[in-house]
Amino acid sequence: MPDVGEGLTEAEILKWFVNVGDTVTDGQVVCEVETAKAAVELPIPFDGVVHEVRFPEGETVDVGTAIITVDTTPGAASAGPASPEVLEATDAVASEPTASAPTSPESVPAEPAAAEGEAPKRQAVLVGYGVAQSSTKRRPRKQGAGVPTQATAAVQGELNGHAGQAAPAPSAAAAAAPASAPAAPAEGPARPLAKPPVRKLAKDLGVDLATVVPTGPHNTVTREDVHAAAAPAATAPEPLRSAEPAPEAGTVPAVAPAVGGDVSRETRVPVKGVRKATAQAMVASAFTAPHVTEFVTFDITRTMRLVQELKTDPGFAGLRVSPLLLVAKALLVAIKRNPEVNAAWDEANQEIVHKGYVNLGIAAATPRGLIVPNIKDAQAKTLPELAAALGELVTTAREGKTTPAAMQGGTITITNVGVFGVDAGTPILNPGESAILAFGAVKDQPWVHKGKVKVRQVTTLALSFDHRLVDGELGSKFLADIAAVLEYPKRLMTWS
Question: What distance in Å separates the CA atoms of residue 334 and residue 39, rounded to the nearest whole number?
Fold first, then answer.
């Protein structure tokens, strides 16, 4: 499972396009996965025959875990042991022997050394040019309690994403020791076997892996084991009981119901994918950037009339024209008049970075959760070009085909809460952005127009901004300019 985004740790397999025995070619898409940012199709980097599909659809897999095995030399079993290629996410592809292949170090031919002055060969990878083959140096492990056996070390090495390595040869002193000499006693229990993400999960939950009952292959500790061990800690203390198997995925642990509640009527949904990433990003933003939210309510009747006129304009034929389009254009005009709003905070260098471009994010609700793809260089687009980009962005998001690149580099965002009948809100900033504008519902309301109370179309805009970048005066002027353009849309031309 490759890291197809920036620092992603896991992905869910949505669909397999191949089965065992199918022939695949270099670059052929073999599966679709959902990361914390988007649904992505994964290509295979070699030619061959599918030997094994290691995980079913719907399974969440850690980055760095082999998900498919491909035999690159089909039909060559009679000539010698075959080693199907294993697709891994360590930016390199490791080979794994088949069930009939010998596994002794002597039976594996050594790779020829590169000639002097020749660049090291690179291995096939999913993304980029791969990594050069080279030896990896590691710090020597400290001697002490919990030293694993050779078999345990081999299994743990495989969990860490490395192929099983032969145990080091005994030292000369150990070989020369008399056979009658008593073996040194073990210095404590062996280190529990677990993948690095599972170890991090245990650390975050405060669970000692040595106390967890493993249920995975080779007595490895799984995520479910850690959660099962952490569950009793969240309830009232109970007497020590014998270990029980971890509950099946999707079931509710049998714990004592809270006062006034019935646990049997609760439904638990795993937090993963887009929803998990959104939750983490919002928490990080809320506790990092000092938020300020301002509101303005105004008469948007003229803009709503303009929307109807543009729908019949030949220049917008085949394009979707909506009030959101003119809100986006009004925001871009207001940024031109208040360029300091379009900025970012550089914590490392203690600098404010002013952006000479606007990557306009549009919050889109999808079946997998809320995502915010952005329109690159939106400030340079004409109104028809902006309409085309907005329509493509929304369609792609609803189909679940938004790429990770489309959701990176945003500078400011619009969220249209009005489509749900909501008047206003206090939106949370996307991390790294300066402001977010919430567009409320457009409603018929009594309004003073030309000295008389009339029924007009009225809406509310809410602007949240990072107070480190935008002070009250700048934020107020920026929000007022957006409202002024939408109240009198002819300013789209006079202020542009």
Answer: 34
CA 389, CA 406: separation in Å to the nearest integer? 12
Distance CA 440, CA 323 (A): 11
Residue showing tokens 């498919």: 68
Residue with tokens 């290629």: 85
**Pair of tokens at residue 417:** 């809460």
Average the pLDDT over each of 149-158, 279-288, 354-363, 420-429 and give the range with the smallest value: 149-158
- Give the distance from CA 20 to its chain's centroid: 29
Q: State the average pLDDT for the chain.
A: 75
DSSP string computed for 197-209: HHHHHHHHHT--G
CA 173 distance to own-chain centroid: 51
The number of helices, as runs of H, and strands, as runs of E, in the chain is 10, 22
The pTM score is 0.53
Helix axis angle, 301-311 relative to 323-337, nearest 10°? 120
Residue 66 burial (CB < 10 Å; 0-12/13-18/19+)?
buried
Q: Which residue has the tokens 């897999």?
A: 61
Residue 223 to residue 243: CA distance in whole angstroms: 17
- Summarised one tens digit per residue, pLDDT across range 21-75 is 999 998 888 998 877 666 788 888 888 999 899 999 888 888 888 999 999 887 6
Catalytic machinery residues: 467
- Say if CB 55 and CB 72 are below 8 A apart: no
Provide the 8-state DSSP code for 361: E
